[in-house]
Amino acid sequence: MLERTLILFKPDALQRRLAGRILQRFEDKGLRIVGLKLMQITPQLAEKHYEAHKTKGFYPGLVRFMTSSPVVALCLEGKDVIAIVRKLVGKTFGPDADPGTIRGDYGASKSFNLIHASDAPETAKREMELFFRPEELLEWKPADFEWVYDVKDELK
Q1: pLDDT tens digits, one per residue of 66-122
Q2: pLDDT tens figures, 106-125
Q3: Domains in the chain, ordered, with CATH?
Q4: What residues does 69 pair with on adjacent strands?
């Protein structure tokens, strides 16, 4: 079954000019881009997105960080996309993440971690609705779909 997920390239990824390299990792895996935009997150959006952390000490700094520079909002689709993306992203902080993961290859900070990825289907749905209007998420079939997933007629 195909699913969708939200990924944010955080301000440190943009400031370090890593957006293209990070995006390439997802495309190389065969995941389909269905939504993509460069945006400046407002404090209100950051607060809503991270409301689960509101009582934690790092929350005010996280909101400031996420609004400090542009981000890339990305919606990807694929089979088991949430689990695949979480593996590609790696553990939360670069020093703890395995080499070969995005954070393991590009992250060295215990504060900046380059990327956000939804952790469950319910979370992904909520987050996609925060960052994308329905008409901004496209339905399309890449030419290599059947070669990536070894399936027939799954996408019409």
Answers
A1: 999 999 999 999 999 999 999 999 999 999 999 999 999 999 999 899 999 999 999
A2: 999 998 999 999 999 999 99
A3: 2-136 (3.30.70.141)
A4: none
Question: With a threshold of 0.85, does the pTM exceed it?
Answer: yes
- How far apart are alpha carbons 152 and 56 in whole angstroms? 47
Catalytic, 116? Answer: yes
Given the residues 89, 116, 128, 132, select the one marked as catalytic: 116
Whole-angstrom distance, CA of residue 129 vs CA of residue 98: 31
Residue 12 token pair = 């440190």
> For the packed helices 19-29 and 81-89, what is the interaxial angle rounded to 10 degrees?
140
- Cβ density class 66-102: b for 16+ within 10 Å, e for less: bbbebbbbbbbbbeebbebbbebbbeebbeebeeebb
